[in-house]
Amino acid sequence: MATGLSVDLKPRRWRPMVLDVAAVVLFVVIGRASHHHGETVGGVASTTWPFAVGLGAGWVLVVAAARRRPGRTSLASLRGGVVICVTTVVVGMTLRVAAGQGTAAAFVAVATGFLGAVMLAGRAALGVAARHAARRRSG
User: Fold this and answer.
1) Residue 82 region, left (φ>0) first, then alpha (ψ -120 to 50), else beta?
2) Any idea what the Cα angle at residue 117 is, between residues 14 and 63, rounded to 5°?
3) pLDDT value for 131
4) Helices (H) and strands (E) in the chain — how many of each?
5) What is the pLDDT of residue 1?
6) Residue 41 and residue 86: Cα distance in Å, rounded?
7) pLDDT one digit per residue (tens) for the chain, 139 residues
8) Coarse DSSP helix, strand, coil percentages of the chain, rounded to the nearest 5 percent
9) What angle do CA 79, 106, 125 make, to 5 degrees?
10) CA 114, CA 106: separation in Å to the nearest integer?
11) Whole-angstrom Cα distance, residue 71 to residue 33?
């Protein structure tokens, strides 16, 4: 029975998602280390899960937008990266409040800045690499 869902395993499709996951995990590990909270698996998981849920929500929003208006945005686009970053932070901070974890203004600013920089710079680098590879293949 067909569900209408398909999985595209081409690297250009999943590389931005790997980048996003790496950005969230790196943010959490650096943050926990700088505040001397330690890098235990449980500690990293308890800090990561709200942002991971937010990240998933961001991906869903971008994929839904891309299906409504093909060509306007994608998981790999800078526009998609902005939506994913903002959704990750907003949902992540909301879930942190619901879970009784802290959300100081400086933490929100650092999360937004770090995730935005890594997610957007990473997408820009992926775009440059893709264009370079396309030129090499065509000429």
Assistant:
1) alpha
2) 35
3) 86
4) 4, 0
5) 47
6) 26
7) 455 555 555 666 789 999 999 999 999 999 988 887 767 888 899 999 999 999 999 999 999 999 998 877 889 999 999 999 999 999 999 999 999 998 999 999 999 999 999 999 999 999 898 888 888 888 6
8) 75, 0, 25
9) 30
10) 12
11) 40
DSSP 69: S
Give the type of residue at 104. Answer: A
The string of DSSP letters for 74-137 reads -TTSHHHHHHHHHHHHHHHHHHHHHTT----HHHHHHHHHHHHHHHHHHHHHHHHHHHHHHHHH
Residues 80/116, Cβ–Cβ less than 8 Å: no
Find the angle CA(115)-CA(121)-CA(39) to the nearest 5 degrees: 40
